[in-house]
Write a structure and sequence with these properties.
- By secondary structure, this protein is of the alpha+beta class.
- The protein contains 6 helices and 18 strands.
């Protein structure tokens, strides 16, 4: 794989906006409409992000590994609108290490070429996977989950939203890939739009969806759509009411200098990481700045500047 010099420009794609982080380096970013919507709402829906084939292969992998499924504990939500018969969802874990070929579609999402402009814009280049990859599923009767995310009320360096010098920056963000349709009223992911900028705590009765339900938005999306939201945006889960199964894949990312939760590495990379491409391996690097591998626009080429001019 070709490694470009730090001062060599990335390939320019006219569909995206380009922003210079110093006088020598440019990188691909979200377009102006997407920047406006994320800055306004604290989340963004990217329609038709995955192809029908990608969605199908991901679902086939899940179907082939029923033994990896376990239930999220049911919370004590008795008497609240969020209550249900079962926990809020079932998890699948360890997807990156599932046997071939079932691991491959999940590894492909680590550094999907189409996600690069979004992560570049929200985190700066050198972003990294945080937490483990997660699959969440739900069936009729699954309860919801209380709304959480503190906006500007609590700044601890891991969950935040900032804007300066024509750039957005976030702490932890979530990329939620929809693998089945979510129609209005089905339940699942919900957000309070604009709450990533909130300066006052969310009242408990709103957090538990007991009052002011009109400000809570249950995001409808089709299989293949991607929802990106800031962890500091107030978000939760509404009870699942649809007859079909909810399926979403969670990929969480942080800036190159931040480590939010335990990841795939301890003191050294596990052996299976050597099976990944160099770009996929770069997403699993621990947090550091100097000479960090940065993924170029094509999703394959890496550059290793001593330090980005941010």
């Amino acid at each position: 794989m070709k490694i470009l010099a730090a001062n060599q420009n990335s390939q320019k794609l006219p569909i995206w906006g380009m922003i210079a982080i110093n006088e020598q380096v440019e990188f691909v970013t979200m377009n102006d409409r997407e920047k406006y919507l994320f800055d306004l709402q604290g989340f963004l829906v990217v329609r038709d992000f995955l192809s029908n084939t990608e969605v199908s292969v991901l679902n086939q992998a899940i179907d082939a590994n029923p033994d990896k499924r376990f239930e999220h504990p049911r919370a004590d939500l008795d008497g609240t609108p969020l209550d249900g018969e079962f926990g809020p969802f079932w998890h699948y874990d360890g997807m990156l290490t599932w046997p071939d070929p079932w691991c491959q579609p999940f590894r492909h999402l680590l550094a999907h070429p189409k996600v690069i402009p979004y992560l570049n814009t929200l985190l700066g280049r050198g972003w990294k996977l945080d937490h483990s990859v997660d699959i969440l599923t739900a069936t009729t009767g699954c309860q919801g989950m209380g709304i959480h995310g503190s906006g500007n009320v609590t700044f601890n360096g891991s969950r935040f939203y900032a804007y300066q010098n024509n750039r957005m920056r976030c702490g932890l963000i979530v990329c939620e890939y929809y693998l089945t349709d979510v129609n209005p009223g089905d339940g699942g992911l919900c957000v309070i739009p604009g709450s990533h900028k909130a300066n006052f705590p969310c009242p408990d009765d709103i957090r538990m969806w007991e009052t002011n339900q009109e400000i809570v938005f249950n995001i409808p999306a089709k299989a293949g759509d991607l929802v990106i939201f800031n962890e500091t945006t107030s978000h939760g889960v509404l009870p699942w009411r649809a007859a079909h199964e909810r399926r979403v894949a969670f990929y969480r990312y942080t800036p190159k200098y931040l480590h939010y939760a335990g990841g795939v590495y301890q003191m050294q990379m596990p052996e299976w990481v050597s099976e990944l491409t160099e770009a996929q391996q770069a997403v699993l690097e621990p947090p550091y700045i100097y000479n960090r591998p940065l993924i170029e626009t094509d999703g394959e080429t890496l550059v290793r500047p001593r330090r980005e001019g941010e």
